Amino acid sequence: MDFYDLDLNDDVLDALDDMNFIETTPIQEHAIPPILEGRDLIGVAQTGTGKTAAYLLPVLSKLRDGGYPDDAINCIIMSPTRELAQQIDQAMQGFSYYLDDINSVAVYGGNDGIRYEQEKRGFEHGASIIIATPGRLISHISLGNIDLSRVSFFILDEADRMLDMGFSEDIMQIERQLPKERQTIMFSATMPDKIVELAKTILRDPVEVKLAVSKPADKIHQSAYICYEAQKLNIVKHLFADKKPERVIIFAGSKLKVKDLNVVLKRAGFNVGAMHSDLSQDERDAVMYQFKSQQVDILVATDIVARGIDIDDIQLVINFDVPHDAEDYVHRIGRTARAGASGRAITLVSEKDQPLFKQIERFLEKEVEKNEIPAECGEGPAYTGRANGKGRAAGRGRAGNHGGKKRASKGAPKGQEKTKREDKRTDVAAKDTAPHVNAAEGKPQKEGQKPSKRRRNHHRRRPSSGEQKQDVVG
Q1: What average pLDDT does the chain have?
Q2: What is residue 299's three-state secondary structure?
Q3: Which residues pair with 370 in a beta bridge?
Q4: N- or C-end of the chain: fewer Cβ atoms within 10 A?
């Protein structure tokens, strides 16, 4: 379906035309019509399916059509992280290019007092749409900086992440500030019980749009090392021994492990940066700038902040820890092989994570290729996660089932004592402090409303057979 088959405002369609957005994604095709009709909606779709446009476009269209107060905040969009809030704000700038009377303010925290005052001025100057992380918005509410009594649209993006991060009470506190008569839209990658309960609490007779989690792109070469926890760091070093790493993301399961890896890899001579929740916003912006501009070759990150990573030419993704569900696995490795390129994804599977990896393989409906552990790292454990229940050693040479299990029962494999001592030193190294740097932002200025060109130029928006379609934000 094309966007101009939907009942969107002409000025919104003009912006899409300039951005070369032609065809809708499935989530947009099914979510935009009920939102335009004023229905509450819950959408279940993973990152990368176009969900940002699925709620921004109809809300902007309705605001442009009129009937909403000019002197009030009309829409609140909640985001779990500062990075996602920034992405939504960037998408907003493009989609609202011809909507001069609709302004937005991004409110995403940090310790910058200047930014806090800028947010306050944005409220005072009549922002129509607020894009916010829960904690920062609560701060403004508690200080009386913002009036939510006339909000018409309440949108929760990545609601499952917000609940996982402990924002449930904040969301309900914000919801109590809103009028009962409003349209509520919620998007989530998964539908656990807590999301179902939240939907029952804040949504009224919602339309449900659910998309199956898509499989990873065919151009991603997936493989895994079945190893002991103490072998992981040496495997990573081995991967970079023969060829200098470029455009690599390493995902770790906790911010402490991200800090550990950052310090150890730096000491090993690698050009590495770290992204985790203990960094200030200026530090995060600086790390992302360094990575995007290739000043940093390896980015070590947690899942939570990784949602703000939107770079097309990532060559390798390493899962230092196995993610807890298939959705997170698909999201992580989907950072590579974008825009038609190819890429690699390598997962390090420790003994305790074998059941999790088995679930991921079941979702993928295939067995991920197992790499032999480098000789200098010793032998690995048996892989007991195969669907037929039969173990197979993923180590090197003669490490068959029996040998692998025997070694596992006696503790660490031969030659691992030194690796464990290095692992202990890693914990101490994590106490080092990362450097601090700064960044800035801006928005283009327009001199007036450009007249709608949809009707007079409708025919030219139809793409030719060879025209390339641009990826949709979200």
Answers
A1: 80
A2: strand
A3: 224
A4: N
